[in-house]
Amino acid sequence: MSDRPTYETKSDRNNEQRVVEHICARWDCAYVKMPKRYELDYALHRQNEVIAFVEVKCRNYTLEDIGQMGGYMLSLAKWNAAQALTGFTGRPFYLAVQTLCGGWVARFRDFESTDIRIGGRTDRKDWQDTEPVVMIPTRRFQNFRENFHQIKP
User: Fold this and answer.
1) Between the CA of residue 104 and those of 5, 47, 95, 140, 141, what are the distances in Å?
2) Cβ contacts of residue 98 below 8 Å, gap of 6+?
3) What is the pTM of this model?
4) Which helix (H) or strand (E) holds 86?
5) Taking the CB of residue 47, how many other CB atoms lie within 10 A of it?
6) Which structural domain range is residue 36 located in?
7) What's the number of domains the chain is made of?
8) How far is Cα 69 from Cα 92, in angstroms, rounded to an integer?
9) Which of 41, 100, 119, 153 is most buried, judging by how many CB atoms fall within 10 Å of its CB?
């Protein structure tokens, strides 16, 4: 059992759920919220057969801002979990990011070499908020509305 506080709010969970519901409506599938031990947010499925894994993020900045930061920062622990699940199951991993300028999704089936840095938050004074992270280039993301059907699992 961990003494670490949970910073995720009910509003955060509701926002993430709206994003995954939008994805499922467009991809004609259903979702299951995965237990914390899996590190990732959702498993997508059709008739109970898992078709993909999804991590959902809702951010108060734009994709351009992400580009200026050197890419989207994702915990190395989540990246490793996604890589392990994809490698074991053969199902793709999607990173869905809702920003101020729209919804974006990146698909990963093969995990190429990635820029790994130390990153995270410092505003909460929680030493566990700083960790190894991967920087995912904005070129990996496609807009939900423009290219959504092309990236269907």
Assistant:
1) 29, 26, 8, 9, 6
2) 15, 19, 56, 57, 58, 59, 104
3) 0.86
4) helix 76-89
5) 7
6) 10-151
7) 1
8) 26
9) 41
**In a domain? residue 2:** no
49 inside domain:
yes
* Residue-level pLDDT at 1: 45
Ramachandran area for residue 48 (φ above 0: left; ψ -120 to 50: alpha; else beta): left
* Average pLDDT over the chain, rounded to an integer: 86
- Confidence band (pLDDT; 50, 70, 90) for 3? low
What single-letter amino acid sits at 95?
L
Question: Is 30 within the bounds of a domain?
Answer: yes
Distances (CA, A) of 145 to 19, 22, 30, 67: 12, 11, 19, 20
CATH code at position 33: 3.40.1350.10
Place of tokens 């699992």: 153
**126 pLDDT exceeds 80?**
no
53 domain-assigned: yes
